Every structure is written in structure tokens, then in C-alpha cells.
Amino acid sequence: MKTKLLLLLVLISSISTNAQQTLTLEDCYTLAAKNYPISKQTELIQQKSSYENEILNKGKLPKIDINAQATYQSDVIGFPSTLPGVQPLNKDQYRATLDVNQLLYNGGTIDATAKLKEAQSKTQQQQININLYQLKSRINHYFFSILLLQEKEALLKSKKDLLTSKIKEVQSGVKFGAILPSSEQLLEAEIIKINQQLVEISFENIKLLNNLSKLTFTKIDAETTLIQPLTFSKNTTVTRPEIAFYDLQNEQLEFSKSVISTSNLPKINAFAQAGYGNPGLNMLDNSFQPFYVVGLKANWNVFDWGKTKTDKKVVDISKDIVTSEKETFELNIKMQLEEQDFEIKKLEQLLFSDAEIIQIREKVIKSSDAQLKNGVITSSEYLVELTHLFEAKNSLKAHEVQLAAAKSNYETIQGK
Fold first, then answer.
1. Which of 96, 159, 305, 361 is exposed most, by the fewest CB atoms within 10 A?
2. Predicted TM-score of the model (pTM)
3. Are strands 22-24 and 225-227 parallel, antiparallel or unpaired?
4. Which ranges in 38-108 belong to alpha helices (H)?
5. Residue 287, phi then psi, degrees to nearest 5
6. Per the database entry, which stretches of residues form a coiled coil (predicted)?
């Protein structure tokens, strides 16, 4: 039972380890969108929008003020003669009031402003989406550059293994005098050259992995296997976040026009004032008295010298500018998609010819291999043909990765 449990734990650990050592392009996109610092602004904008709505809604609640004042006047209202029961007013006067103002109608300014604030928040949120989406291009660059290095490294190691086994054959030929001793040395020098190239690849790979790790905020090292994308869907529909951003900008400008329209509508407020002072409302009663006042107040700016009309014209011009920017962006995207489409077709043609070249080079190297064993050609001549073969294989792998990169770039430009 313990043995079975131990084997199960080892298997789970192995599966977990393998899962951690593989990474797809979509994984990188998801990690970057989730962990990149600017993504934190999403929640902050939502909180900001919530507080702004709360502030606007409080504008519909009664406004309550407490006021108090004490004054001394150089003169007061007087009477030409003394009247019975009427005392002269004091020059020092006192008043404390509780004032309540309730908005009844303001032309819908608060509601229009609330919609404008909501549109502004959506626009800000979409800008974050754009910034996060733009990371995809950088991720594509690092991801496929690493894949290209990994393919090149694998080919170099394969070439090194082949040369190592070939040295053993040459050593046997040298021993029996069929091959010159210099042939072995040339092969050893080529292996040293390959080792140098592997060192260069190793350092370049570490640099690219480090950059990709920083973008995705996850540990990616040389042990991580990057999975090359296999699926590709090609269509002309553009769904870039910038398109939605331009639409939201126009929507925001339209809401701002609504706010402008409400600025000249009448405003109606109800008010009430309760107070205690000396004198009260009766100026002839020279004593502390309670008092109150209630009423309605209306305000209507019937003529603003065409300011509202001009403000709307400014908004319309701003909308035209945004529309122009959107059309320019769509045109540039269309051109980029066409260029990427040509790149894909070119690489597909190159891959077809790569396969043909490799078939020919493999036949040549078989012949050169037999000639080297029999001492007909030197190891230098053999290395020339071997290099040609691995250059062809390297071109094939490079074009495969470049094709995958071109397809991913096409989808990124498209907005997928």
C-alpha cells in the first residue's frame, strides 16, 4: 500500500513538473494581462466611477446649512416721532438660522452628468485594454525569438553529435593510414566552433527568457518548453480594442453635448429657513423672536450669447477628429494585414523549397560520407557539404518558426 502511494505521489509530482515546464503563447498573453501593473487600474477606475456616481446622487439630496451672525450697525431705521409700544431698534443684532434647500428640477443635469462620467470610465477602461493588448506584440517577439534559438540549438547539438561519431570513424581511418591525421583535427576544430555557437545561444536565450519573464511576471528559464502555436484562423474582420476605444470616445462626446444642453434649462429649488434672532422678521419688535420662511426659487438663463451653440460645435468637431483617427487606424491595420498575409505566403513557398533542398543535401552528404571513409575526399570537403546540409535544415526550422510568428502577428494585428 505504501509503495503504491509513493508511486502515485511521484506520478503527480512528475505531472506537475511537466506542466510547469511547458508554456504556450496564450499562457503568456493571459499572465501578462493578469499581472502587468497597469491591469490594477481596472479596479481603481471602477471604484472611482462608483464614488463619482455617489457624489452626483447626493446632489439630489437636501442641502442643510446652519448659519449664525452677530453685527453692530452704525445706524438703524428710525421714526420721526415716538410711537406708543414701539422701541428704537438696537444697533447690535443677532441671528441664527437653519437653511434647507431641495433641488426639484435642474433640467436633468445630474442624470446627464452621471451618464457622461460612466462613459468616461468606460473610455479609460478601454485605454487600459489597449495598453495590455499592445503587450502581445512584445510577447510575440520574445516568444518566437526563443523558439528560433531553441531550434538552432537543437540542430547544432545534432551536428555536434554527428561530428563526434565521425571523429571516431576518422580516428580508425588514420590508424590504418587511409585518412590523413589533419582530418581529425579539422573535425575537432569544428566541434569547438559549435561549442562557441552554443554558448552564444545560451546567453542570448537567457536574456530573452528574462525579458519574457518580466512581461508575464512568472519564472521562465531554460528548462521551460515553449509550445509553438498550431492553429491559425484567417479572416478580414478587425476586432482591435482601439476600434471600441474610438467608438467610446464618440459616445462620451455625445453625452457631453447632453450636459451642455441642460445648462440653459430652468432650475427650480424649494427652500426653507428657520431661525432665531433679534430682531426677527418683524423689524419693529426689538427682541429675540423665532421665525421661518419657506418658498420656491426658479432660475433660467434665457440668453447666453450663443455659448451653448458654440460649445456644441466644438464637440461636433471633436467627434469628427475622433472619426478621422478611427478611419486612419483602420486603414493602417488593413495595410498591415495585407503585408503580413504576403509574408505568410512567402514563407509557405520557402518551406516547400527548403524540403527539396534538404533531400538533395542529404543525398550529397551520404556520398561525401562514403568518400571520406575511403579517403577520397578530405574532412574539409566533407565539412563543407555537412555545413550545407545543416544550413538547409536551419533554414527550414527558421522558416517554420517565422511562419508561426507571422500567423500569430496576423492574429494580433487583427485583434484576435
1. 305
2. 0.81
3. parallel
4. 41-58
5. -160, 165
6. 389-416
